[in-house]
Amino acid sequence: MVKRYRLDEVAKIKEGNIVPREEYFTNVGVPLVTAEYLKLLMLNGDMEQVSKVNMRFNKCLKCAAVPAKTIILTRAHLKETNKYIYQCENEVCIANDVVAITPNETIILSDYLLHFLSWYPIKERHHLYHIPIDIPMIDIQHKVVQLLNTIQLLLKNKESLITAVEGLPQYFDKFSRQIENHSQHLQHGLNQVHYFYDVMLHKIFKGELYKEMHGSEI
């Protein structure tokens, strides 16, 4: 069963406040995610590099704190295909140049929403609240997320996998031609995986996959 919701019916959408003054930053505290740091997190996911604020001063700071599993996007560039989007593993504060979306995971899994928002063409920031999303049962979401996360992990490690295979001839000179062919096949295969990922996103979030299933399992 698939049910249609508006995004603001299944998630809390919060916009950040002003960035605190320098004296409120600390070595130990809650990370403050700005648009600039969000771009860095997209690259390496290292939350330790993010500036932190002392929440004891929150009455002065009026920081917008959001819980783990919140999805953060930059307020600018939402319309871009490769928009900046990140899923927090722990509680963070958000600055005034980002938007946080915290899903109600009794209805929609954070990972499912992450893939959806990465795929969905957002027109304007104020449209976020009214985005329509067709949501299947939680058990179906789990299966979809397992599939998409596995594919995404392969794509994330694409360059390192190809580099590792291309480096093998230095250890096996007699098999350099075979290894080169394997490297080409690997690259082609990963390109096909990328295409498959895009097709799956379209099928899932356009509802085509669920129509094809007719109630059967993924």
What does it look like?
It contains 8 helices and 11 strands. It has a 5-stranded mixed sheet. A 4-stranded antiparallel sheet has the order 2-10-7-8, with helices on both faces. With 218 residues, the protein is α+β, with helices and mostly antiparallel strands. The chain starts with a strand and ends in a 5-residue tail after the last helix. The protein has helices spanning 7-10, 35-44, 58-61, 110-119, 138-156, 158-166, 176-205, 208-213, and strands at 2-6, 11-15, 25-26, 30-33, 52-53, 64-66, 71-74, 85-87, 92-94, 98-103, 132-136. It is globular. The longest helix is centred in the C-terminal third of the chain and has 30 residues, at 176-205. Helix 5 runs antiparallel to helix 7 (176-205).
> Structural class, from secondary structure content?
alpha+beta
Note the total helix count.
8
Q: Order of strands across the biggest sheet?
A: 3-5-4-9-6
What general outline do the C-alpha atoms trace?
A: globular
Largest sheet: 5 strands, mixed
Distance between the termini: 13 Å
Cα Rg: 21 Å
The strand count comes to: 11
User: What series of H and E elements makes up the topology?
Assistant: EHEEEHEHEEEEEHEHHHH
Report the sheet-strand fraction: 15-25%
Low-confidence stretches: none
> How much is the average pLDDT?
80
Percent helix range: 40-55%
Task: Please give a quick description of this structure.
This protein has 218 residues and is α+β, with helices and mostly antiparallel strands. It contains eight helices and eleven strands. Helix 5 runs antiparallel to helix 7 (176-205) and helix 6 (158-166) packs antiparallel against helix 7 (176-205).
